[in-house]
Design a protein that fits this description.
The protein is mainly α and 83 residues long. A two-stranded antiparallel ribbon has the order 1-2. The N and C termini lie far apart (37 Å).
Length: 83
């Protein structure tokens, strides 16, 4: 299964849920939140323990979505001046 199809089976955006932020399907857990937890040192197992409605594949899909977004939506970052 391709990377894009893999995350698309688990990640969605709906204007009625969290103002359209990408979330794990069937939840109100934003991709952004999952990525922030991992960046702040949480292990995948900790995320799963604290959010039992998630599966390991959901967390991995959130990371794959973030990587996809970084590659395919560079215009979102064009205004940032990273030093």
């Amino acid at each position: 299964m391709s990377e894009a199809k893999d995350w698309r089976s688990r990640i969605t955006d709906d204007p009625e849920i969290l103002a359209g932020k990408p979330v794990v399907k069937g939840t109100r857990i934003a991709v952004e939140h999952i990525v922030k937890l991992l960046v702040n040192g949480w292990a995948i197992e900790e995320v799963l323990e604290n959010y039992p409605q998630l599966k390991r594949e959901d967390v991995l899909a959130a990371l794959k979505y973030a990587a996809w977004f970084q590659r395919h939506k560079p215009h979102a970052y064009n205004r940032l001046k990273l030093k």
